Prior knowledge:
Helix content is 10%, strand content 26%. The protein is built from 3 helices and 12 strands. It has helices at 31-34, 137-146, 171-178; strands at 2-5, 24-29, 46-50, 58-60, 83-89, 97-98, 112-116, 134-135, 150-153, 183-185, 199-204, 212-221.
Amino acid sequence: MTLIDLSHPLEHGVETFPGYPTPVMRHHITYEESHGQIAEGREFCADLITFVGGSSTYMDSPRHMDRHGNDIAALPLERLVDRPAVVVCAPSNGRREYQPEDFKELVLADSAVLLATGWDSYWGTPRYLTGSPYLGPAAAHYLVDAGAALVGIDAILIDDIDDPAPRPFVEAHVSLLRAGIPIIENMTNLTSLPGHGARLTAVPAAVKGVGNFPVRAYASTH
């Protein structure tokens, strides 16, 4: 079995989304400060980390778009663990929007549908923040009707990051999350996966009261 990491590291100072504060990582207790609290010759540190829930590779729960929706801690593990992965590459004709036709003939029920755009190659650069492929409204409804377990993308947003509206409709988020389908954004290495045959596991910490949180996602192949 081969394990493939699908998450970017959560790093101090690395921007995930324009205008969001970047993660801050520091010691609450430094190694030096621990010397008076532990046996001689040994040391430890206690870390203090501050970040927006939507940092690095992260998962959205229904609560992200609905104050009464299930939070991250309430997500059923059955949707997150050992799901068959269906990997769908970006349209070859240069079209940014995934449409229902891109998913025809695919068995999607109870699967992790992974949108492999290749945009993760721009992670950490200005280009990553604009122009990425996205899941169109009709395609989002198609995945809901098809019974997808979760949906992930290797780009900054599953909706159109370049939507010119002053208040974007974010239809993909709304459609998927209302149906209880978690979303993973900012994935990586999806283009290294086969179209079928891999299994996805992506489990965030069971944090109550929040709508999104970083996740360590990985695929297993045989």
